[in-house]
Amino acid sequence: MGEEEGTEEEAGQVQTKAEKDILTMSSVKLQLQDKGNHVVMDNGIARVTLSKPDGIVTGIEYNGIDNLLEVLNEESNRGYWDLVWSGPGTAGTFDVIKGTKFEVIIENEEQIEISFTRKWDPSQEGKAVPLNIDKRFVMLRGSSGFYTYAIYEHLKEWPAFSIAETRIAFKLRKENGKCRFHYMAITDDRQRFMPLPDDRLPDRGQALAYPEAVLLVNPVEPQFKGEVDDKYQYSCENKYITVHGWICTEQPSVGFWLITPSHEYRTGGPQKQNLTSHVGPTALAVFMSAHYTGEDLVPKFSEGEAWKKVFGPVFVYLNSSTDDDNDPLWLWQDAKSQMNVEVESWPYSFPASDDYVKAEQRGNVVGRLLVQDRYVDKDFIAANRGYVGLALPGAAGSWQRECKDYQFWTRTDEEGFFYINGVRPGQYNLYAWIPGFIGDYKYDDIITITPGCYMYMEDLVYQPPRNGATLWEIGFPDRSAAEFYAPDPNPKYINKLYQNHPDRFRQYGLWERYAELYPDIDLVYVVGSSDYSKDWFYAQVTRKKDSKTYQGTTWQIKFELKDIDKDHTYTLRAAIASATFAELQVRVNDANASPLFTSGLIGRDNSIARHGIHGLYWLFNVDVAGSKLVEGENTLFLTQPRSVSPFQGIMYDYIRFEAPS
């Protein structure tokens, strides 16, 4: 997947709709109106209504449209914060977070900030999540939209619990009056007109292998007939979820956008995938979820564990076309420009909560990352476009499963230099990984960030796992299976967006194509003649035998060796991009022998079903005695034996076979 094009424009190069509104509406006074059961924030550009004391966004009036949210929905199902929580040994409970107390925090000519809090007490044990929650909503003078953030707090003496998900959700108007949000945009090359939610109902849609995937057989609008709709087809990695949303294409056209200027409060690091926008029309800002990772990304808090975290602010940005430019897609370009403005303004100066750390209270880390791999280059290699981040102290690579605290990430430049700015005070480890090299880097010393600090790191040197020269390799080490062969989908299950698209792996049902391509004999890859972009299936899935049974699969890698060193050890490096209730067994030259290596049961990513080309990263290093190899052709057998469902399997990132050191 390429870089999100939304970051290409420099802030300030394009005057955004918001900046124009500031010029024209700067004289309009902010107004806060208390209407009993509701409270209204109004800056002359947007008028936002929230229920009181619940703190649910019930109305957004903008550009002459009385409400951008779905008025046919109950008020509690329009714009809200929610979470899924559970106590020890109990099932998850979905909770639309409703406040019990309303408070005005700031009300002046420049800013309104209001708070909706919900306090926990022991009488609620087992009935409500043991958290104090403070939801904040902020409107600034001249701003085309509003901000929202929240503070979650668990006190030390409170009972244990876990959070499977927390997010903000907005449900927009789909078919009412002069405003219909039918066009969705996530990135430059992932945007389209979307079907209606009614198209997913039983009389219009056919449920497929799981509830989220529906074949549209009799949609309201005939152009969608025969397409698959599945919200997971529009998931995105955290690092690319900067701006997404919807456009009402009726004139004058209107855009509704969620802008996330920082990912510090999202769990799992920059590669973690989350939902964005999908049929509804729905727009989400997801902060915690187990999608594409499983239980590893569900934070579990014990009794006696104090915790507090600030999620957001997220900017709800509104824009509209002008008399001079009625092209609806201009609104996407404008939203990207506004996203750049918000990123440049992070950390914000306006949030009133003391729990939100301002710029002057944060620290910065600068340095350079190099790679030392003598089999690639005798000299140090600059870590070109490497990922460098600060997260809670732990083992190398632990950041991808870290789900309680903040993380701060950046990319190195071509020379390996990096700059991590705006880091909250605290103790961290510095972690890194570099495309083109396997494994994880961790700087051994704890890094303590203090307010206003600039920490200059000496040249950091990563020595990736390596014993000997590369004899052969398959793939490219980038923690993704995107370079491998993703087949054309079954013509009955098409999403037109992903036809002739780089993200062809997002089509529905690709796992079923394996049995069609390999009905009797599993995949055989011949080093030196096979091409992994054509001959290595994107996932080692189960083979469907009939409608209810599946079988494990064994892939073969055939390779030639000569002058074998029988007295020393060769090394197999198997980097895994994703695993779902799977097991990797390795055998050499005897398919029926006891495994030379087994991973045991690994992974709950569910990336195969959810059209993700990766999940959590695994690296296995397997010793292969020279005595097990033969002169001439050798065969490596990779078996995935677990076979209860079609979604069990492994996505490989990269495989390498090394000579003895």
UniProtKB/TrEMBL annotation:
Q: Which Pfam families match?
A: CBM-like, fn3_3, Rhamnogal_lyase
Give the InterPro entries listed for this entry.
Carb-bd-like_fold, Galactose-bd-like_sf, GH-type_carb-bd, Polysacch_Lyase_4, RG-lyase_II, RG-lyase_III, Rhamnogal_lyase
- List the GO molecular function terms: carbohydrate binding
Which stretches make up the Rhamnogalacturonan lyase domain? 386-454, 470-657
Which keywords appear in this protein's UniProt record, sorted alphabetically? Signal
Show the SUPFAM superfamilies listed in the entry: Galactose-binding domain-like, Starch-binding domain-like
Name listed for the protein in its UniProt record: Rhamnogalacturonan endolyase
What is the species listed in this Swiss-Prot or TrEMBL entry?
Brassica oleracea (Wild cabbage)
What phylogenetic lineage does the species belong to? Eukaryota, Viridiplantae, Streptophyta, Embryophyta, Tracheophyta
